């Protein structure tokens, strides 16, 4: 009877947690697939680095999800009824840190580079300092994540041995949280700083802030959950409730930011009451007071475009040429 109770608990804490984690990961993959469809059907005029990042993230996501499905197949088909499998280490899960860091670090660098471009004209030292900080944090979590994954693959044979890698896992995940928070807070602060007082401009900025919060919170919560589960229950599958979905959440962050340009475009069209002749908005072509460096008073908000981050055409109407903005008031 005691053996049955231990086996039941092991099934719940390992097989049950793994199934929920992989199923939720598959659910996120379905949402992410729709994000891909939205991105490619929107025909954004993105530069080749952005397109390369997009295809890289897609390749990593497809590979990781395929590994997770093979993982479930192993438990429920190949090793069905073999309780020793519950206590063994498996390469499918041990490779998860590789997939996570290969998704997280490029996404973080992409987002902080956008902030650097928006902030760089007025405060280049601050912009470059933030970029350098996130770059260092990205390198640290990349090294720690790869080290942990390869160490697990080479040395660990059973779940009991996972405990000795807790310090590395905590250091890696803590660094990831620090990078995510730095990216989110710096981006929101930059958007708040760039408010102009114009209704259309501030509406766009507010929506970009919402996107930043919506993207950062799920990733941060899952990372914290992963750390807590690893510390409290390293020899069970409880930490896999969170681990399988972390990479998908980073991918969703990237595509949600890219696809948010559709919402901004539609919002401008509805604001102006136009349906065509959409012109390009370059958030990086304006100064602090909303005056375009290309000449003529314009209201622009900087979201995405310079040469390495293309912003799809969003309507931007010229203000009356005789209108002179009150720069001091703005």
TrEMBL record:
Membrane-crossing segments per the record: 20-41, 53-75, 95-113, 125-146, 166-193, 205-229
Coiled coil spans: none
Classification lineage: Eukaryota, Fungi, Dikarya, Basidiomycota, Agaricomycotina
All copies of domain DUF6534, residue ranges: 176-262
Protein name in UniProt: DUF6534 domain-containing protein
Keywords recorded for this protein, A-Z: Membrane, Transmembrane, Transmembrane helix
Signal peptide: none
PANTHER family (alphabetical): CHROMOSOME 1, WHOLE GENOME SHOTGUN SEQUENCE, DUF6534 DOMAIN-CONTAINING PROTEIN
């Amino acid at each position: 009877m005691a053996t049955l109770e231990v086996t039941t608990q092991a099934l719940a804490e390992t097989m049950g947690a793994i199934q929920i984690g992989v199923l939720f990961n598959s659910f996120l993959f379905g949402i992410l697939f729709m994000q891909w469809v939205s991105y490619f059907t929107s025909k954004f005029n993105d530069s080749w680095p952005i397109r390369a990042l997009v295809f890289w993230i897609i390749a990593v996501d497809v590979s990781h999800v395929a590994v997770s499905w093979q993982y479930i197949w192993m438990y429920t088909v190949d090793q069905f009824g073999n309780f020793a499998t519950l206590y063994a280490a498996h390469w499918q899960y041990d490779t998860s840190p590789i997939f996570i860091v290969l998704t997280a670090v490029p996404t973080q660098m992409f987002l902080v580079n956008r902030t650097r471009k928006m902030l760089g004209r007025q405060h280049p030292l601050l912009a470059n300092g933030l970029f350098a900080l996130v770059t260092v944090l990205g390198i640290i979590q990349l090294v720690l994540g790869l080290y942990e994954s390869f160490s697990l693959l080479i040395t660990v044979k059973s779940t009991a041995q996972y405990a000795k890698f807790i310090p590395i896992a905590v250091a890696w995940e803590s660094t990831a949280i620090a990078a995510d928070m730095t990216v989110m807070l710096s981006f929101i602060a930059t958007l708040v700083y760039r408010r102009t007082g114009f209704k259309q401009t501030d509406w766009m900025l507010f929506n970009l802030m919402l996107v930043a919060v919506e993207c950062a919170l799920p990733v941060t919560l899952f990372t914290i959950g992963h750390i807590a589960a690893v510390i409290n229950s390293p020899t069970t599958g409880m930490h896999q409730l969170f681990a399988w979905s972390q990479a998908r959440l980073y991918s969703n962050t990237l595509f949600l930011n890219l696809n948010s340009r559709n919402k901004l475009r539609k919002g401008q069209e509805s604001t102006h009451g136009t349906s065509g002749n959409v012109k390009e908005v370059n958030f990086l072509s304006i100064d602090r007071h909303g005056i375009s460096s290309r000449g003529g008073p314009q209201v622009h908000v900087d979201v995405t475009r310079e040469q390495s981050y293309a912003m799809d055409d969003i309507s931007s109407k010229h203000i009356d040429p005789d209108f002179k903005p009150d720069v001091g008031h703005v």
